[in-house]
Amino acid sequence: MLILFLIPGTPKDLLVYVAGLLPIKPLKFILISTFARFPSVITSTLAGEQLAIGDWKMSIVLYGIILIFVAIFVFIINKLDKDKITRVTFNEITKTAVQKAVKEPRDIDINLVDAQQARRVLDRIVGYKISPILWKKVRRGLSAGRVQSVAVKLIVDREEEIEKFIPEEYWNIYVKLLDEKTNKTFEARFFGKDRKKQEIHSKEQVDEILKNIKNAKYIVEEVKKGEKKRNPAPPFTTSTMQQEASRKLGFTLKKTMSVAQVLYEGVKIPEKGTVGLITYMRTDSTRISEEARAAAKEHIVKTYGEKYYENRYFKTNKEAQDAHEGIRPTYADLEPDAIKDSLTKDQYKLYKLIYNRFMASQMSPAVYDTMAVTIDANTYTFKANGQNLKFKGFMTLYVEGTDEKQEEEEGIIPELEPKQEVKEKSIEPKQSFTEPPARYTEASLVKALEEKGIGRPSTYSPTITTILERRYIEKEQKQLIPTELGKVVNKLLTENFTDIINVEFTAKVENQFDDIAEGKEKWKEMIEEFYGPFEKNLEKVEKELEHVEIEEEVSDVKCDKCGRMMVYKYGRFGKFLACPGYPECKNTKAIIETIDIPCPKCGGIVQVRKAKNKRKYYICENNPKSCDYISWNKPTKETK
User: Fold this and answer.
1) Catalytic residue list contains 218
2) Could you report the per-residue pLDDT of 405-422, keeping only the tens digit for each?
3) Phi and psi (nearest 5°) for 297?
4) 459 and which of 455, 550, 574, 579 could share a cystine (Cβ 3.0–4.6 Å)?
């Protein structure tokens, strides 16, 4: 039997007996996991092994409470008919959905209960056993976790990629051409030589090409016309909603889930009362009910016309649990603008995003006319691509955002014919350099976690919130950047717990949880298989690190009081300077960030500070004494 915490000196037989009194597994877990929240008695272990540290006074109090809980649970369970315990589930808080759910309850799926138990137990074992090592070696208040530590690792690894990145030079040649029949111009780009693609990496190559095509005739060799369809995105899952709200609304993950929770629970609408406006917002499925599909059809046909509707089904990811529908509005007739006055500004924005995304998912594709043209100039080849939107379809209502750099939209090319000559109007070589991978944003990190199978949709928001609060990372213009503390913690964990703090392990564990939920694997066996090697590695790491001290980062600032070189420390409010001579010398200093642009009003030094919401602002060092300069925007040399 798995016992989640032990108190030193307590007879093992008593613990086994107490836990054994509870006849239903979920209640055993509820009782045990409740007391795992006590900070003074934190542990995760197998029965018969002592792994907790707690004082005896707290131990006696806890066991008194445990026995009371046991007595209450046993009394209640003995009075219940266990065969009649069922579960009522509904995807939306509407009268119809709740009434239907109550009429059609389902049996409790013990496999799903076991999968949840396994997840909580394993995550507590990892967190509660590794975190104390960080307290000893770095500082108190830090934490480690199966998902959060891997998220930090992804951000640190990306930062290292950026630091190591070496830009490579490359060139493009653009030529503006004139079709004399229509008197219209269009742009073509260099493709290669003798119809084979050629990359240009130096100015010398550019000069040679320009020399060889000087005064050349530009002859249209091939014209390909076609039609391209663009399909709408599926209804939101939790992660895609978080990503899109970040891109389009600038919402943090935490804010998105908070606003969505209110929309789900219900908002007071005149003449309708309190109405749940969206379906359950923690889901990994894009499936929608037939009732919702029919309501969407009625609304689209009525509003836009028959040709704008298409009955569309989306494939749900094979890794998805598919326990709930995709996120959609509960009532198709409650259009965002119609109930705008009943919603807050943020509620309206998110509801409109969810509503439009769902409706667009059931609309016709957008249709483009496309043209691809190949043009020869002596032995060199240029290509031009154009497209023209001839039917907007779903784009009338909604277009999905992206984290990638937007490519220039393809323009319209005049009607051209093979063997036709077009005239050169201008030619422009353009030098560029390859760019490092972009830093993660909240949206792109969620996408990466989902693609790599790390965590579940409901865990992304609390995970990112936690690593921000622990100051492992910081946000700068939406980008997630690892702090020095984050790098130190990541280095310690990845060097000593290689088998756990990695993407492959975390993704593998998620698959095991899914197997438990499907009844293919036993949760206790899975935990035992993990715990044995983990415990041995933990003991080994604790011994190896016993005499290891993490070196503090030394600054170039001298202590005003004792002359030592001050070191960087981390506190509740971030990084600061402290004297290494503590406790003899308790001198500390705030770290003041400045910019190399003088104050536009008095010429003083401009400091960078953070408001309570962590947004940066710029203020003159002489404010408020002799200057009143303060701004959200970074000053420029031209600022007056």
Assistant:
1) no
2) 555 556 788 889 999 999
3) -60, -45
4) 455
